[in-house]
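Data availability (excerpt). All sequences and predicted token strings are deposited with the supplementary files. A representative entry, Aspartyl-tRNA amidotransferase, is shown inline so that the format can be inspected without opening the archive.
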Amino acid sequence: MTLLDRLNNDIKVAMKAKDKETLSVLRMMKSSIQNEEIKKGESLSSDEELTVLSREMKQRKDSLQEFKDAKRDDLVEKVSAEIKIVDRYMPEQFSEDELRSIIESAIDETDASSMKDFGKVMGIVMPKTKGKADGQKVNSLVKESLASL
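Structure token line:
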């Protein structure tokens, strides 16, 4: 079952349950995937669907931080609820130990010896963690690992 099929089924369930908040978020996610398919001109692969979902999650997390900074508690609650809904469709996230292991193997693979090799290491790590780890967290862990060399 593709992500789009799963979203369609969950939209039907949300409509029957009259869950407006969930329905709204599911429709936005479906719309984003369909817009990406239109741009591409064909159906998306599961990796491409994951990229779209990751982008949706990142947008919401960025908005959440901005609303917190602006002390807009009403919007913080709304976006937090949206994040929980989008999170149901995201793959299980890597633990910090798993991330460190991936980073260490990338450092070994590239023979990285300093911060100058940051780009090389990130080039190997990011495709492996796509959708399964927050990019900012990966970034900080790579910098930490390279700084300790």
